[in-house]
Amino acid sequence: MHNKINVVGQTITDLLRYHERKVQRQVAECLYAGNMLKPHDLLTTAEKQYHLRRLQLLNDRVVDKTVHIYLSWSRDEVLDNDTMRNIAKEYMRGIGLHEQPYLVYRHRDMPHQHLHIVTTNIRHDGAKINIWEGERWKGHQVARQLEIKYGLHQAGVFLPDEEWRKKHPVQKVVYGQTPLKPTINAVLESILPRYLYTNLEELNALLRPYQIRAHRGLANSVTHQQNGLLYYPLNAQGKEEGSYVKSSALHSKPTLTKLQARFRENVVRREEYRQRLTTAIDWIFHQRPVSMDALKQALQKEKINMVEQDNHQGQRQLYYIDQLTKTVWAGSSLGRTYSGEGIRQRVISAETYEQIHLQKRQLKQGQQQRLQQKQEII
Predict the structure, then answer these.
(1) Which spans in 108-255 are helix H?
(2) What is the largest CA-CA distance in the chain?
């Protein structure tokens, strides 16, 4: 947890205006009002200003009367409002400003979670609270204590790889709930070395169940022009969320340059597994007519997942993930009959499939009834 204590010449009016504008734009919220007459959610902006400004007016000799404290956490952390509120209150007690009126604002306009505390260094008797380097160092000590108490990432402390993996298991990214960078890290370190894929689209088909997408950025963006790569969290509908993690910031640094080298290797390495996949698909169609859903279910029994998603050109494509051979294939790379269009021509509609199965069930029930009647006669 990083912390910073500043005594500034900025007026309380200007500082509160800054935070309240963010609240109005819904990228911030006021979490707590300490030592004020009303709870934070009942205070107007004018009332918030009054509680702080009235103390500042008690001392005309002090020029810098506004205290602005900043607390931030690693991108790895996910803190709810109650936890953040409690940390702010304990931090203020730890640095000795807990008896001052103060306001706690949580901001949501940056990838990492952070809050701001606004207070004053003028006491109720007009005396000045001297905030110098000793108090700032004490703030660092309090921050370390709170990290331990709340089980937070300790600033400057790095876990060994094995311990890090135990703490961050492979799981689906849920934006705002699971820690973004560690979860993406865990998925990529589990997936990238084990599977054979030959382009970003095939890799994204592999990452889709974990709600992650690798993206080069817009064609005219600096990221794209410099061959960069970003990893976005996805929502349940497969749409990118607002935040992302740069490939260079991840543990194994899965940059586009590294992946392109792997793409070239995988083209040759996966070829021996092509026939298993095409044979499995053809055998299902040979046995009986199937709908798209029935095909997916039949392939799953063969340890093959079928995934539909948009490629980088926005076109709907079909991909196959063979969990047995750890290979990923775009349907079009297997041949036209295995592409999305080819498969849609080979399957029957869900309604027709259901009618066929209904007829089979009725036929089977009729056979069982006739057999039962014969047994009763005997």
Answers:
(1) 133-149, 161-167, 180-191, 200-207, 222-225
(2) 114
H or E element, residue 8: strand 2-8
> Which amino acid belongs to residue 264?
R
DSSP 3-state of 112: coil
The model's pTM: 0.59
Helix (H) or strand (E) holding 315: none
Distance, CA of 366 to CA of 355 (rounded, Å):
16
Give yes or no for a contact between 266 and 196, defined as CB atoms under 8 angstroms apart.
Answer: yes
The CATH code that applies to domain 2-149 is 3.30.930.30
Residues 234 and 245: beta-carbon distance below 8 Å? no
The rounded distance, in Å, linking the Cα atoms of 369 and 91 is 77
Per-residue pLDDT of the chain (378 residues; tens, 9 = 90+): 777 788 877 899 999 999 999 999 998 999 999 999 999 999 999 999 999 999 999 999 999 999 999 998 876 677 899 999 999 999 999 999 999 999 999 998 776 789 999 999 999 999 999 887 555 667 888 988 998 888 876 665 555 556 656 666 788 988 877 778 888 988 999 999 999 999 999 999 999 999 999 999 888 888 888 889 999 999 888 888 878 889 988 888 999 999 999 999 999 999 999 999 999 999 999 999 999 999 999 999 999 999 988 766 667 899 999 999 999 999 999 999 999 999 999 999 999 999 988 887 778 777 777 777 777 766
Cα(259)–Cα(196) distance, integer angstroms: 11
Which token pair is 329? Answer: 């294939």
Neighbours of 25 (CB within 10 A): 9
Half-sphere exposure in the Cβ direction for 91 (13 Å, CA): 30
Whether 342 and 331 have beta carbons less than 8 Å apart is answered as yes
Give the 3-state secondary structure percentages of the chain, helix then strand then coil, rounded to 5: 45, 20, 35
| Alpha carbon distance 111, 245 (integer Å) | 9
Do residues 58 and 128 make contact, with C-beta atoms less than 8 angstroms apart? no
Q: Where are the domains of the chain?
A: 2-149, 161-269, 272-347
Say if residue 319 is exposed, middle or buried (CB neighbours under 10 Å; 0-12, 13-18, 19+): buried
Ordered alpha helix ranges (H), 248-349: 256-269, 274-287, 292-301, 331-334, 340-346
